[in-house]
Amino acid sequence: MDNIVQWINDNQDMLIGFSIKFVIAIAILIIGKMVANTVTGVMTKNMRKREVDGAVISFVGAILKTVIFIAAIMMALSHVGVETTSFIAILGAAGLAIGLALQGSLSNIASGVLLIMFRPIRAGEYVDAGGVSGTVEQINIFQTIMKTPDRKVVFVPNSEIIGGPIVNYNREELRRIDLVIGVSYSANLQQTKKALMDVITSDERVLKDPEPVVTVTNLGDSSVDFNVRPWTKNEDYWPTRWDLLERIKDRLDEEGIGIPFPQMDVHLKKED
User: Fold this and answer.
1) Which of 86, 142, 145, 207 could form a disulfide bond with 108, CB atoms 3.0-4.6 angstroms apart?
2) Number of helices and strands (H, E) in the chain?
3) Model pTM?
4) By the 8 A CB rule, do 231 and 245 touch?
C-alpha cells in the first residue's frame, strides 16, 4: 500500500495530465454525439421541408449520425494518447475480415445506397422488383419493406432489387390499358370495332389525349383478336380496366357478336 501511495505521489503531474485528457476525451464524445444529433435533426427538417422521400431521410440520417460519432471517437482516442494510425490499421484489417464474412450484407448496404442515390423506387410507389409486386413502405440499410395488395409485408434484400429489373407503375401520371378481345369469325369487323370504341369512349375516365385505339391484331385459330388500348390516369387504371371488361361483354352480347371459347368435339364409334 505504501508503494502505491509513493508511486502516486511521484507521478502526480502525469496522473493529473492524464485525468484532464480523459475528461476532455469524454467531453469530446458527448459533444460529438450532440453535434451528430443536431446536424441530423437540421438535415432531416430541411429535407422534410423540401418534401424529400421519407425513406431517403431515414437512410441518410442514420449514415450521417454514424459517421459523425465515429469521427468523435477517433478524436477522443487521439486526445488521450492512443495511436490512431495503428488503431485505424487494426480496424482496417478487422474490417476486411468482417467484410469477407459478410459479403451479402455489405452488398445490401451498397445496394441501399444506390437505391437512395438514384431513387428508382420511392416510398408509396407500387413496383415490381426483386421478384415481388407491392407498395414500397421503407428502404432500410439492408432491405426494402414492401406491402402486397393482399396485405402481406415482404422484406426484400436491397441487392436483389438492384440486381434485377425494376418496374415502377406510379412514376408516370398516365397509363395505358391493354385488352385483347377475341370475337367469332362470323362477326362483322366494322360493327365489332364500332361497338368496342363506343364502350371505351363512353367512359369518362378514358382520356381523349392520347387517343384510344381499337385494331385487329391477330387472326387466330378460332377467333379474330382485337387490341383495345385506352389511356387513363394511373390511379384509375384498375377500376377502369375491370369496368371496361364487364361493359364490353354486355355490349357484344347486345350486338349479337359471339365470343369464342375452347370446345372439344367427341365422336363415339359403335362397333357391331
Assistant:
1) 142
2) 8, 10
3) 0.61
4) no
Task: Give backbone dihedrals phi and psi of 119, rounded to 5 degrees, phi first.
Answer: 55, 55
Q: Which of 107, 121, 102 is nearest to 160 (CA)?
A: 107
CB 55 within 8 A of CB 7: no
Cell numbers describing residue 217: 391484331
- With contact defined as beta carbons under 8 Å apart, do 144 and 115 qualify? yes
Residue 71, classed as helix, strand or coil, is helix
Question: pLDDT of the chain along its 272 residues, tens only?
Answer: 566 656 556 666 666 666 777 777 788 888 878 888 888 888 778 777 766 666 666 667 777 777 787 777 777 777 666 665 666 666 666 555 555 444 567 788 888 888 877 889 988 899 999 999 999 998 887 889 999 999 999 999 999 999 899 999 998 999 999 999 999 999 999 999 999 999 999 999 999 999 999 999 999 888 999 999 999 999 999 999 999 999 999 999 999 999 887 665 666 676 65
Q: What are the residues whose beta carbons fall under 8 Å from the beta carbon of 254, sequence distance 6 or more?
A: none
Q: Which residues contact 130 (CB under 8 A, 6 or more apart)?
A: 144, 156, 157, 160, 161, 164
Residue type, 250: D
* Helical residues (DSSP H) of 158-255, grouped into ranges: 158-162, 189-201, 237-255
